Amino acid sequence: MRKENTLYVVIPCYNEEEVLTETTKQLKKKMESLIKNKKISKESRVMYVNDGSKDKTWELIKKIHEKEELFTGITLSRNRGHQNALLAGLMTAKNYADVVISMDADLQDDINAMDEMIDKYHEGKDIVYGVRSSRKKDTWFKKTTAQGFYKFMKFMGVDVVYNHADYRLTSKKVLDEFENFKEVNLFLRGMFPLVGYSSDIVYYERAERFAGESKYPLKKMLNFAWDGITSFSVRPIRMVLNVGIIIFIVSILVLLYCLIVKILGRAVNGWTFIVCSIWLVAGIQMLSIGIIGEYIGKIYSETKARPRFIISENLEENNVKK
Ligand code: UDP
Ligand code: MG
Predict the structure, then answer these.
(1) How many structural domains are present in the chain?
(2) Is 165 in the same domain as 268?
(3) 80 CA: nearest ligand 1 atom
(4) Which of 108, 190, 263, 304 has a CA positioned 20 to 30 A from the CA of residue 166?
(5) 283 and 203 in a common domain
(6) CA–CA separation, 184 vs 182, rounded Å?
(7) What pLDDT is stored for residue 305 in this prediction?
(8) Rounded-to-integer distance, Cα 252 and Cα 249, Å
(9) 215 C-alpha vs ligand 1 centroid, how far in Å?
(10) How far, in Å, from the CA of 262 to the mean position of ligand 1?
């Protein structure tokens, strides 16, 4: 068991007035039982992050906070989207907590998985990913698009934990290191694996949203996937380069073919020249764009200035302390 066990549960909320009361009720029960079982400290809190909601969400959070010490909150100056709101919450919570769990406001992520997550934390894991074991309760459309999303990400060269969204436990140590990731285009579920440290997985069944509607319509989801791919992978650029190489090789074959036709005297006047130019120029252009793309990809990853390494233990430091 780790001694440091103040837990903060971070929950981004955008127009969630319909669900917050029920979420609060259920989380209160859960947190109280965790405190009673001494799995987390009495200073543990649930932190709502109001992401510039247009309804009464923030008023509701303030009211809950006044009534219940267990609940607290921050509000953003305007709507910045789920990932930014979540990051704001994580970076605020880590100042007070030893360990943080992030989840959605609609309780689609089974809060009973928290027990197992915290057990794993006490066993020494620093990141615990919540993974959906099934999506029986999701609509067919949501299920297919969401699973397609993970497969497409993989195909595009982005390393994500399959079926893991943002239901995740992270220790303070991980969040402190995470602060050094300065990128603005956030794709948190792809970034945490980059931090490293020992991690584990907890499976849970994904429930239905019990009130309100999804704040992630198809358009937002596609944007999100695109953000993930372009922030994590140079594979799209490589694809351009590969197409360039293929067209270039084809153009040489076309060149040979045209020459043969010409030599055999079957070509119409000017045909050889036009066909060869089209293929050769197109091939060279595509190849050049691919090469320039490679450099842009390099510039992009340099500007993100991600940490090049993270040291998790240093024996020398222990010596000095002793
Ligand atoms: N959310 C947010 N800002 C936004 C959109 C969504 O903070 O601009 C929050 C929302 O309140 C919820 C979580 O992100 O707690 C996930 O959204 P939702 O449940 O609508 O997504 P889905 O489960 O349908 O993918
Ligand atoms: Mg949801």
Answers:
(1) 2
(2) no
(3) 8
(4) 304
(5) no
(6) 6
(7) 86
(8) 5
(9) 5
(10) 64
Task: Specify the pLDDT at position 11.
Answer: 96
pLDDT in tens, 43-102: 999 999 999 999 999 999 999 999 999 999 999 999 998 999 999 999 999 999 999 999
Atom of ligand 1 nearest to the CA of 215: 20
Domain assignment of residue 274, given as a range: 235-304
Phi, psi at residue 134, to the nearest 5°?
-150, 165
Tell which atom from ligand 1 comes closest to the C-alpha of 13: 11
**Is residue 231 a contact partner of residue 187, using CB atoms and an 8 Å limit?**
yes
Tell me if 2 is assigned to some domain: no
Bigger pLDDT: 13 vs 143: 13
Residues 77 and 209 in one domain: yes
Higher pLDDT, 52 or 322: 52
Ligand 1 centroid to residue 102 C-alpha, Å: 12
* Same structural domain, 34 and 182: yes
Question: Among 14, 132, 214, which is best to mutate for testing ligand 1, by the most ligand atoms less than 8 A from CB?
Answer: 14
Quote the pTM value. 0.81
The one-letter amino acid at 243:
V
Q: Which residue has the higher pLDDT, 126 or 268?
A: 126
Which residue is it, tokens 């969204």?
Answer: 165
